[in-house]
UniProtKB/TrEMBL annotation:
Residue stretches of biased makeup (Basic and acidic residues): 8-23
Subcellular location per the Swiss-Prot or TrEMBL entry: Membrane
Record's keyword annotation contains Transmembrane: yes
Transmembrane segments: 173-193, 205-225, 240-261, 273-290, 310-330, 351-370, 390-412
Residues in coiled coil: none
Protein name per Swiss-Prot or TrEMBL: GOST seven transmembrane domain-containing protein
Domain GOST seven transmembrane: 172-417
Length: 419
């Protein structure tokens, strides 16, 4: 997970005090109630009187220092220390080989936990490891004794950044969602004043635009509070997350339907959609179902800074439905522009030409951004660029907001709304 360096010093051996704000400004990894259980057959082979009969090591390493684990610097492919390497004084038999840099002696860092006698279980000592360098950190639990094969682990680790429990790549999104909720609030206020001024001339399409603005504001606010709660407590209550995901799915669906019906000329060229409304609603319902499912899988699963490759296939149906929307929207726009040109409705034609150009630019930007996203993920398999990863989802929300602003400006309330 991506962690920023601590802003204040923390004593790893000092137990947290409820009376003091011991977490503020600290970045750390804390091991809590970590228990290792080895197979019974392995334990029975050991001597009851022997103190150390098995070793499990917790190794914390920054991704850029991953080559320090294993014997590569000793020109060996071994991960664990062998008797021959031990004779050279490079490592201890039975331990993972770690090359310690004198300038950075605590990276990688190992924490050793031993089994004693014939015991099947051992508990890791409660420890807090301070993070003093910003980076992507991995935690490995490793053992070199083949007799420990089948050992299980239970318990939990607590990872914290200086400002809270949000993973590093998610932390900037909390501020971003807060700013976006204010942006939607500002847009909603301007739209409300427009609507009040021309309330007698409001058409059905403008009510739909109002709904999208309201959904966007609620969506951004929910994500902000969800992230703020996660950052403060380290937990994600399912209720808040579920509401945030649902509002996102609803808003994305309604936004796409709005683009589609606008492209069909609804409210300007044609007063109703006629029989095509059922196809529109069916596409919208299908999109909502898949979008909601994808959102739940992404946000109710494990939260870390690593790319979940197994989830990528879930994007396929949503991407195909997005493609259907794009094709249908531009097909409808082409027909609408053709009708307006035949009718010589030049004011309406100019309006739809501006809308078409704006939509075309947004599609081109989307294609370019998808290409950049694919390149970003392919070029960064170990998430070393985690500090920039937040801009990937942020772009899509910003693009949707800008497109909504364009629609609001083109279809703003006036005394002649069907111009």
């Amino acid at each position: 997970m991506g962690l920023y360096a601590s802003k204040l010093h923390v004593d790893p051996d000092k137990k947290p005090s409820p009376e003091e704000n011991h977490l503020n400004g600290k970045s750390f990894i804390r091991f809590k109630s970590i228990t290792f259980r080895r197979p019974k057959e392995s334990a029975e082979k050991k001597n009851e009187m022997q103190q150390k009969t098995g070793l499990v090591e917790a190794i914390i390493v920054e991704v850029k220092d991953r080559e320090k684990i294993g014997g590569s610097y000793l020109h060996s492919a071994a991960i664990c220390c062998t008797p021959d390497l031990s004779k050279e004084g490079s490592c201890n038999v039975g331990e993972v080989i770690i090359h310690q840099d004198p300038n950075y002696p605590y990276n990688p860092q190992r924490i050793q936990t031993f089994f004693e006698g014939k015991t099947e279980e051992t508990t890791m000592v409660l420890q807090t490891v301070e993070i003093n360098h910003t980076g992507m950190y991995y935690l490995y639990f490793m053992f070199c004794d083949p007799e420990l094969m089948g050992t299980t682990i239970s318990g939990r680790t607590v990872w914290r950044n200086p400002e809270g429990y949000l993973p590093g790549k998610m932390a900037p999104l909390m501020t971003y969602f807060g700013l976006m909720s204010l942006a939607y609030l500002g847009l909603g206020l301007v739209w409300f004043l427009w609507s009040v001024q021309y309330w007698k001339d409001i058409i059905q399409l403008q009510y739909h635009i109002t709904a999208v603005i309201g959904l966007g504001m609620c969506e951004m606010a929910l994500w902000y509070f969800e992230y703020a709660n996660f950052n403060a407590t380290g937990n994600r209550p399912m209720g808040i997350t579920l509401w945030a995901v649902t509002f996102t799915a609803v808003k994305k669906t309604v936004s796409r339907l709005l683009l589609l019906v606008v492209s069909m000329g609804y409210g300007v060229v044609r007063p109703t959609l006629g029989g095509v409304i059922f196809k529109v609603l069916l596409l919208g319902l299908t999109y909502f179902v898949f979008s909601e499912a994808l959102g739940l899988v992404e946000n109710l699963g494990n939260i870390d800074d690593l790319t979940g490759k197994a989830r990528l296939f879930l994007v396929l149906p949503v991407s195909l439905l997005d493609a259907c929307f794009i094709i249908w929207i531009f097909s409808a726009l082409s027909q609408t522009l053709e009708k307006l040109q035949i009718r010589r409705s030049m004011a309406k034609f100019a309006l739809y030409r501006k809308f078409t150009n704006s939509l075309a630019i947004s599609v081109l930007l989307s294609i370019a951004w998808v290409g950049y996203e694919l390149y970003f993920n392919a070029a960064d398999p170990l998430s070393e660029l985690w500090q920039r990863a937040w801009i990937i989802p942020a772009f899509w929300n910003l693009l949707a907001f800008v497109l909504l602003v364009v629609i609001c400006s083109l279809w703003a309330p006036s005394n002649n709304p069907t111009r």
